[in-house]
Write a structure and sequence with these properties.
By secondary structure, the protein is mostly beta strands. The chain is built from two helices and 24 strands. The strands form seven sheets. Strands 1-7-6-3-4 form a five-stranded mixed sheet, with no helix packed on it. Strands 13-14-15-16 form a four-stranded antiparallel sheet, with no helix packed on it.
């Protein structure tokens, strides 16, 4: 393990204590070689790193790197029970308080759970690594796409996008799922009101400017009566969400089946997967009622 982090993002000195065995010298942050037990400091801003280089009796140098985290980077932990299945993992750690999320750092962790890359703090719950090697985060109803060097590639906004998932297609277009409230829906079969507002989802293919190319409306193809009864108490009996709508469907994820126009959708409150063709109508269902 050669990569480490420390909360030293304000530029304050980081105290480093070394205990080197006999015949071994260590250099911290480019300082002269020292041996035995000693303490020194290194000052870096958030995102910057310093090296700890070890020179054993064999003279084969070994370098370790400590990178400075922002001071408000959320707390996290990582563990595994066996060999990891990938070299890196993407996650979006955020601090959740009684006032909601305080912002997140889209982050790439190595196989040891060490942050090795992070984007600027943003109001997002979802970040993904795109097939083109860029990173995209769903933010404020749209998304931001960045290169790994931090360069902002594009911002698409104003789409009321759901914060669960985003796809980049081989065509260069994107698949997003947009939320909309639809009023006048009869939920009496579910134990709800005769005229209710329901949170609907529209699958949209948009171009790099955010212009809609194709769309597929969930409510046009999947009736509200497909909701699984086990969710009635939490959704119907509890009443509308803070947004004023009944969350009958609760879409969670979307996956491209490989041809750029058929997709697998998952819905929590339907307890089902649907394979849909964005060019045509009603989908086959797997699971649910």
């Amino acid at each position: 393990m050669t990569d480490y982090v420390s909360r030293c993002g304000d530029g304050a000195p980081v105290q480093v204590t070394i205990g080197a065995p006999d015949g071994t010298a260590v250099s911290v942050a480019g300082r002269p070689w020292s041996s035995g037990r000693f303490t020194t400091t290194a000052s870096r801003a958030a995102g910057q790193a310093f090296a700890i280089v070890v020179r054993p009796p064999s003279q084969v140098l070994k370098a370790y790197y400590v990178r400075c985290l922002p001071l408000d980077f959320p707390a996290w932990s990582a563990s595994h029970t066996g060999a990891t299945r990938a070299q890196h993992y993407m996650a979006t750690p955020f601090e959740l308080t009684s006032f909601g999320a305080l912002g997140a750092y889209p982050t790439i962790f190595d196989a040891n759970g060490v942050p090795v890359w992070w984007a600027p703090k943003a109001a997002t719950y979802f970040t993904t690594l795109l097939p083109n090697g860029n990173v995209a985060s769903l933010i404020n109803g749209g998304f931001e796409e960045r290169k790994l060097d931090g360069t902002l590639v594009r911002t698409v906004s104003g789409l009321s996008a759901d914060a669960h998932d985003l796809l980049l297609l081989p065509s260069g277009n994107y698949i997003m799922v947009v939320n909309e409230n639809v009023s006048g829906q009869d939920l009496t079969e579910l134990g709800g009101p005769v005229s209710a507002t329901v949170l609907n989802h529209v699958i949209k293919e948009v171009d790099p400017l955010g212009v809609t190319v194709k769309s597929w409306n969930v409510m046009d193809h999947i009736p509200v009566t497909e909701m699984n009864p086990q969710w009635y108490p939490e959704v119907i009996t509890a009443g509308p969400t803070s947004g004023g709508a009944y969350d009958v469907y609760h879409w969670n994820s979307i996956e491209d089946s490989g041809d750029g126009h058929t997709f697998i959708l998952s819905f929590r409150h339907l307890d089902a997967l649907y394979k849909i063709d964005i060019d045509v109508g009603a989908p086959p269902q797997h699971g649910g009622r």
